[in-house]
Amino acid sequence: MASEQRLPRVDRGGRLGFANYPPQIWLLLAGSFLVRALGFAYPFMSYFVTERGHGPTVVSFVLAAFGVGWVLGLLVCGSLVDRIGGRLTLMTAMVGAAAVLCVLAVSHGAPMLIGGAVVFGLLFDAPRPIISAAITELIPDSQQRATVDAFRYGWVVNAGGAITGALGGLLAVRLDVPALFLMNAAACATFAGAAWFLPRSTQGSAPAALSGYRNAFADKRLVLLYLSSVATLTVMTALFADMPMVMRLHGLGPDAFGWAQVANALGVVVLTPLITPWLSQRIAGGPRLDILAAATLWTTACMAAAAFATTTAGFSLAGFGVALGETAWFVVAVGIVHRIAPPDQRGLYHGVWATTLPVAWIVSPLLAAFSLETGGPHMVAATTCVVGLIGVALCIPLARHLQDRF
């Protein structure tokens, strides 16, 4: 992204002040919302593979292949941002995602489905490190960065995800699932076309890939934040991994799980504008590990309590409660990445940190299944607390290393 355009330092009172953001940020957020709202391929992939006549084994292989691609893709795309620029990386990734979705829509055999899932996983989440690196570069003020990060997480990601679930469910009844894949492809192609209007990057080439990764993983701040984030996100994603399993024990079906998801998304959308002014003012003073730890504790308590819920209302209340912790946690965590990322490795740092989410998506259901098989809901609550407390404990050495540098 063009580094010569900078934001004026205005609106120190914590108000949103969105009019002061560069147009590149608005374009990136709008494109991200589009591919998020029409991102049907991943949530409906298991249904798609089943419709192709395959059993649970092939479904699990396809989803695992997608997860592997997701992790690797974030690392590769983050590094490419530093080497060839966000504009070219975004265009290439979105064109590739559109193409592979078109191929997947007409695929039937297991090898094609598994291979396509890997490639799609490599490309589908590319906008995340690209947008994060652009925010770091174009918005030098940490308070304004916190505001746009809160807007991005609360309204772009969560509202878009809510539209995906609601609209995808309605369309799947009237259309076939391959049609949803084609709509997802059209959204990716549209974002690629919009990326053409982004300015060319003025950033020089980053260090060689291997040395870049080596330097990043030698940064104790990034490593500690990464481990703490994996622990916290494992607790957060339990909302989608543990909760359906526990609900089934009480005879609750997919409709009840849907209400819990709606409550969580609604909580994030409603709470974001309420806590953003307070949160952005405090982040302006430095990386707030106390808020990060408190958000992790709150989220852990809500998800541990969800293990003892027995009704739709109880699970929905837990989902709404998690929204407060996850909103604050995301803004603080990504704000730390903004601060510690070297200018020539912004994309790489954000790409590395972004892999915490797919890693958590892999760990959380495995932990949930183990807990339910060995001890039932009580064990789910216990393991949730242990993992959450690990995330909190890692904030202590992270705070020490951050104080040494800021």
**Helicity range:** over 70%
How many domain regions?
A: 2
CATH topology of the largest domain: Growth Hormone, Chain: A
CATH architecture classification of the largest domain: Up-down Bundle
Terminal CA distance:
26 Å
Report Rg: 20 Å
* Helix count from the secondary structure assignment: 17
Strand content: under 5%
Question: H/E series, N to C?
Answer: HHHHHHHHHHHHHHHHH
Any low-confidence stretches, pLDDT <50, length ≥5?
Answer: 1-16
CATH superfamily of the largest domain: MFS general substrate transporter like domains
User: What overall geometry do the principal axes of the alpha carbons give?
Assistant: globular
Key phrases:
Growth Hormone, Chain: A, 17 helices, globular, mainly alpha, 406 residues
